[in-house]
Amino acid sequence: MPTESRRLFPGGAPNTRFAAKPEVTSPTVSRGGRVRLCGPHSSSGFTLLEMLVAFAVVGLLLALMPVAYQKLQASVSYHALVRGLVEQASAARLKAMASGEPAVLQLDMEQRRYGVPPKAAGEWPEGYDIEAIVAQQEVVDGRVVQIRFYPDGSSTGGSIRIQRPNGAGTRVRVDWLTGRVSQEPLDVAP
Q: Each residue of 132-167: b (16+ CB within 10 Å) or e?
């Protein structure tokens, strides 16, 4: 039962009664067997073991981040290359149909560049295996290969195989009759 006391407020206010709360300092035992004081003088915080476990988890995550970032960067680079080749082949086709004159998609196998002339739109990083199958008359100086698109939408046709260092890859195909550009995953035998 709470105790009652009298208190005189500043300014000469009449006595007011209130119930004073008793100070709780009784110890309680948690599930882990630790004794805890409940009350104004109790302390809460982390144990040394909890801090060490937290630091170990953070350290492990920091150690794995560079590897994951490297894989992410390689994947983004690969997808950008495939997307760039498909976009440039489609752009060459549209350019030929809009201008009424043939347009070409060029791949410079020595300098690792591709695009619709007069400028190269992109490069592929070292380590990628790029192989182009095109008509013989579309090989220039033994290092530049072309796929030519005509105003009626057709093309000389061909395919470009893009293989990553891990063996996975994509084939970009250009249909000779319709000039349609498509892509498909490579079938890699184990």
A: bebeeebeeeeebbbbbbbeeebbbbbbbebbbeee
Omega prior to 27 cis, within 30 of 0:
no
**In angstroms, rounded to a whole number, what is the distance separating the alpha carbons of residues 172 and 153?**
17
Q: Which residues of 49-60 are buried (b: 16+ CB within 10 A; e: fewer)?
A: eeeeeeeeeeee
CB atoms within 10 A of CB 176: 14
Residue 178 to residues 22, 23, 50, 135, 155, Cα–Cα distance (Å): 90, 88, 66, 16, 7
Q: Consecutive 10-residue runs of the chain (190 residues): their mean pLDDT?
A: 52 53 57 59 78 94 88 90 95 96 95 90 89 94 95 96 92 95 80
